[in-house]
Amino acid sequence: MTAWLNEAHYSSGLWKERTCQSRTCVDGWMNLTEIDPDEEVQGEIHLQISVLGDGDIPRKLCCQVLEARDLAKKDRNGASDPFVRVRYNGKTYESAVVKKSCYPRWNESFEFELDETLSDTGLLSVEVWDWDLVSRNDFLGKVLFNINKLQSAQQEEGWFRLGPDKSKHSEYEGTLGSLRLQLRLRDEVVLPSSHYKPLTELLSQSVGSQLNGNWPDFIMLIDETTTAESRQEVANNLVKLFLGQGLVKEFLDVLFKLELEKTTEPNTLFRSNSLASKSMESFLKVAGMQYLHRLLGAIINRIFEEKKYVELDPSKVELKEAGCAGLHRQQTESDIIQQSSSLLQSYLSELLTSILQSASYCPLLICQVFHQLYLRVQERFPDPEYRKVKFIAVTSFLCLRFISPAIMSPKLFHLREKHADARTSRTLLLLAKAVQTIGNMDTLACCSKEPWMVCLQPAIQQGITQLKDFITKLVSCHESEDLELQTRMSLQCGTMEKEGFLFLHRTKDKCMPMTSPFKKYYVTLSKDTLSYSRTQHSKKSSSISLPKIRAVEKVEEKCFGSANVMQIISSEDSGLQETLYLDCKSVNELNHWLSALRKACSHNTNTMSCYHPGIYKADRWSCCHQKEKSDSGCDKTRHGVTLQEWYDPLDPDLEAQLIYQHLRSVQQAMRDKYYMLREQQGVKEADSVRDKKKVDGLSKLFSILQDLHDAHAAVEEEERSKNKNVFLELQT
């Protein structure tokens, strides 16, 4: 999990602390317990605590409660009614209640007399509660201060994270099982583009067609030194970088050749989780998602809507699930299996028809990659007995690593908003098994492992023939000059692209209307603009230039009655500020748009440091109740928080930074591997000019990595110097 986790809220404060302290990765087992509302806390409180008085005057402890932010929402209206309870030495004070706000401001002070007779002056407790008229108040979090430490500093001020009430322990702890979690907090410093240019050029040269065999060893070294744990991430970063450079086809071709050189048994080709397999998998996800949605959308929706009971395995048939066949007649096991077989054949027939038709709209770049894979395998295994291996090579990616996983888990591929229920999930699994069998092009092997699949054998055999015809058409599309295909390819593999229907509201100086202001628009994020129009192909549209965007943030749920609203704050040439509100269908869609827009605006200079998570309505901000509309904001912005997943838009600098971090970590392993391979091949020190070029290339890589390391060190030193100056100013 990456830096966007900072925006999520976790029930365990321990995990927050451990992740922030380690700065890398936390891996461990957590006991599952009953949910305790008093431990579900979040947010921060702004306090100023000081010790007053000197000499003969009795000293006093002063606690000034200023404000709080991002408090938990405990009430049905999507907010809370927070107040503060301050305790010290047996005395308790309470602040006023701020109604309907998760960003309250109090500006109240409370004083306590310090008991000098005590050797330990005790703890100051600051608790935040949600006030309720009828039921008991809800706990929102607390902060504890050691007064002994405070007396030496005299004053302490800042934002303090609210924690749970640790005095309470669940009686069920450890009795509900355990869950293993691995959390990783990534906070990358991305340098200006010029710093990554040498690395990007070197990587581009390593896959170029003009290299005469000197450089592909560089990709081979990356392949050989990348561990299984990091292979998927490295593959994803490399694919995105080469997509941005227009060289992804050449990069994948180098990996195909390396994989084929290592493969002696055709049946194991591309079946391992090698860099080639992972890179091809990432490529299909990045470049082919629109294609996949068009291919599978109708059949997946049909299965979800019909909710039919489908089961072929006699040991798993449940008669009560199937219901009655007719008036008062219970269905038998054979009835259910026969009915299930007919349904699955219907689903499979519809899917295969869709696959056959998809050759005309499959993105050109995917066609070209499959074409070169097809040819490479044909060259490697030319014998007639291996004539179907070239087809299996294509289906091993298209069916086994792309279509089948999407059928089994449609939510993960954004084909559905929610996961399937148990009945629908079983139907999807059986359909995916049939597709995998067709992709393997071996009906006998499947039926020997799962004999109850034999009823689908005629449909599967027909599917194998149809799939071969499809692949033949697919790999022959690589030289097509069809303009529509070219356009679709550029849309899917452009440097930044996201689109879809959203509900949208635009406001300048207007106050928010009482009724719902949202209207449906087709929103498109391109490389330079965010545009929106009433229909997808409308000639009339409005747009916002990306460099003018100052913040992209979430909106409080209580503002519009939806938890999936975001705001885009931009400035016009006249200096006026404009806010665009987007209402997404789900939290997943909200996170994807937030991530895509933040990444697209990552190099903007005129960004805001704080914003209002509420709306301006009835002459005040709903979040903090400030009356000035031009008030700067009550919460900090999150410009760098992105998902960093395969469905994000391309960010060449970020991909180069992530690849640099990986190469830096395996630098010594690459050097050792290279010299080990030279020894195995019997290469002497004074050998060929070609080998000298490889050594020079490796030295050049290490020199580039050192330059990037030095640049990062300079940035860190500059940051430390800034912080030191700020600290000195505060002391002054």
TrEMBL record:
Keyword Transport: no
GO molecular function: GTPase activator activity; phospholipid binding; zinc ion binding
Cited InterPro entries: C2_dom, C2_domain_sf, PH-like_dom_sf, PH_domain, Ras_GTPase, RASA4_PH, RasGAP_CS, RasGAP_dom
Gene3D superfamilies given in the database record: C2 domain, GTPase Activation - p120gap, domain 1, Pleckstrin-homology domain (PH domain)/Phosphotyrosine-binding domain (PTB)
Pfam families membership: BTK (PF00779), C2 (PF00168), PH (PF00169), RasGAP (PF00616)
Alphabetic keyword roster: GTPase activation, Metal-binding, Repeat, Zinc, Zinc-finger
Domain Ras-GAP: 230-440
Annotated GO biological process: cellular response to calcium ion; intracellular signal transduction; negative regulation of Ras protein signal transduction
Protein name: RAS p21 protein activator 4
